[in-house]
Amino acid sequence: MLDGFGRKIDYLRISVTDRCNFRCQYCMSENMTFMPKSELLTLEEITLIAERFIGHGVRKIRLTGGEPLVRRDMSDVIQRLGRKVNSGELEELTLTTNGSLLSEYADHLAAHHVRRINVSMDTLDPDKFSEITRGASVDQVLAGIAAAKEAGIKVKINMVALRGFNQQSLMPMAEYCATQGHDLTVIETMPLGDVGADRKLEHIPAEEFIAPLSDKYELRSIAHKSAGPARYMSVEPLGLRLGLITPLSNNFCDNCNRLRLTTDGKIFMCLGHNAHVDLRAAVRNEGIEAVDRLLQKALKLKPLRHEFNAQLDGSAEILERHMNVTGG
Ligand code: SAM
Ligand code: SF4
Fold first, then answer.
1. How far apart are the CA of 96 and the centre of ligand 2, in A?
2. Atom of ligand 1 nearest to the CA of 65
3. In terms of pLDDT, which residue wins out, 88 or 254?
4. Is residue 89 packed enough to be buried (19+ CB in 10 Å), middle (13-18) or exposed (0-12)?
């Protein structure tokens, strides 16, 4: 699949639910309302649509949300998409999770060809963790991560950089990841949805966030590439692989290979734009073949780049859609 700018699109992110058992302050407002269950695709529909996308050239799928593991019966989706990895039709099936239910799911994920996952954890400090997630337990997440490691799954920790909140948490996080053999990725906050906070105040460029590491360690750029937009460095002699995702300070849209399916059946071609096509009604009325036509339409809608910088400095309107709808 090629978009209107000639970019090859082969990576699908599926938000399987907009619901979550956490309420991270930069992701959601305190009193989030979620989509009515009647509007959601069934898990069977999600799987059929994903399989159709694979037929069109999708090679990597990431399940996300909301929290993907809170959706009941996720095991079936994992098992069916895992079969596509086993058959070679899919290169990779991965997951972004808050880790809270990993202890329960780790063996199932490993058994169905999930080789690596991203777990979001912004600090190791129990009080700060509880504060940023509005009440979750970091110990539960650490236990989940340990279960994933034990099951043989490679873990990458996602840490959102928040000015004035978790700058002091970076050094312990880097040292924990290095000791455990996990990769670490620092992500700049994106202005998605009203969360009742000043996005501009909490934003910190990833380079500035990681600067204190170079007082103690040597940071070397490395050529490592993953399916996503991170650029990587190694932190020596710690032996840590550190990724930076810099949507605001260093745009990476030129190499974007992604499309996103939401839990209510919309294809969004960019996290930072509202342009989308609606698959749900078409698939229900016309059958799964409707995906073929609407996918071609969606490819033409993919914008050249997001407008997060303009949204952050107030010259463009902030998108109403929160991150849990389109998934990370
Ligand atoms: N619940 C899962 C989790 O937290 O990993 C998956 C969904 S979550 C929306 C995916 C990723 O997006 C997480 O790493 C989270 O920290 C990140 N995220 C959420 N809101 C964000 C925002 N406004 N800017 C940048 N990253 C954000
Ligand atoms: Fe839930 Fe993930 Fe959003 Fe946190 S970042 S509220 S864990 S969806």
1. 10
2. 7
3. 88
4. middle
